[in-house]
Amino acid sequence: MPDHVEGSALHTLFRSEQGGHEQVALCQDRESGLKAVIAIHSTALGPALGGTRFHAYTSEEEAVLDALNLARGMSYKNALAGLDHGGGKAVIIGDPDTLKSEDLLLAYGRFVASLGGRYVTACDVGTYVQDMDVVARTCRWTTGRSPGQGGAGDSSVLTAYGVFQGMRASARHLWGDPSLRGRTVGIAGVGKVGHHLVEHLLEDGARVVITDVRAESVERVRAAHPEVAVAADTDALIRTEGMDVYAPCALGGALNDDTVPALTARVVCGAANNQLAHPGVEKDLADRGVLYAPDYVVNSGGVIQVADELHGFDFARAKAKATKIHDTTLSIFTRAEADGVPPAVAADRIAQQRMADAR
Question: Where is the active site (predicted)?
């Protein structure tokens, strides 16, 4: 890895309104092939907490930018979840299917440990509970471990539950009833989080349409629930007639200049991080009459789960906290109407105020 951050990544890092990150660590271990970026956005509320993403980025600059954006999102997420944690995120560069090894994860754990507790890591896209068990061997600031290792297990369980609570709040705000019964919900991405979300929605009486780039993920859901419909791809899903709620549950940037005009849904509420491709998309959604539940608010169930692990994990206690995502989402919609701004702007203002008060 280079010992400096170039171009737009550097610009993002030092722009106070978009970046303002406290620390960025570029990590390399030649023997294992590890190349990683650890970004700490804020520790105003406490140690930065956020997962580790393992992804085949097209460039090192792309990896740095993703880490910066994800870390900033974690600061806001943790603030609105009421956690005593700041925001941080790590990315490991490479294809996890070919590069991931025990030696690489151990080396990564040593880098996290070198930060002395300023950053607490967990799972994210491309990393799993068993990976965190390995990382924990060289780093005690690791969450999302297996129950056998004293951990909370799969954090996608409460992530999906929290998104469902956000959908209930959206339905209540828009239609006056928190139930999704009889509503059609389209889910783009039925992997770690999405397939749990399907369960909640079917139990609530919703009609579900899914799509995923991985055929095996679709087949797993269909095998358990043959009543679930399948769209050819995300483009077909967002254009589905009669869809009430669209749930992006894969990678970021799902809401952009191409997808927003094509949306048929009245609500967007999903688990993916950084759904808004660029500033201004939140206004485009509002102008079209689409209610957007800010991603970092509704997908905070997972971080609530792993944060609870640091205090001796209690699932009932963590689930009770995640249930409050419903009320938090409603309060954001109320604040947005009062301020005359989109919900994403209202959520940012509330999170920024909490961090400012802490400072």
Answer: 89
Q: In terms of C-beta distances under 8 Å and separation of at least 24 residues, what long-range contacts does 9-15 make, across chains too? A: 9/61, 9/64, 9/65, 9/68, 12/65, 12/68, 12/69, 13/68
pLDDT in tens, 227-267: 999 999 999 999 999 999 999 999 788 999 999 999 999 99
What three-state secondary structure class fits 190?
coil
206 and 337 assigned to the same domain: yes
- Return the pLDDT at 1: 43
Report pLDDT digits (tens) over 295-312. Answer: 999 999 999 999 999 989
Residues 208 and 131 in one domain: no
* Type of residue numbered 276: L
CA distance 74 to 240: 32
Domain boundary among 106, 124, 146: 146
- In this prediction, residue 331 carries a pLDDT of 97
Give me the number of domains the chain comprises.
2
Question: What residues form the annotated binding site for NAD(+)?
Answer: 189-194
pLDDT per residue over 57-91, tens digit each? 999 999 999 999 899 989 999 999 999 999 999 99
Would you say residue 16 has pLDDT above 70? no
Distance, in Å, from the CA atom of 114 to the CA atom of 199, rounded to the nearest integer, reads 40
Whether 106 and 168 share a structural domain:
no
Active site residue ranges: 89
Do 169 and 292 belong together in one domain? yes
Domain end among 97, 122, 146: 146
Report the distance separating Cα 149 and Cα 104, nearest Å.
20
- Pair 168, 290 in one domain: yes
Q: For residue 18, what pLDDT is reported?
A: 55
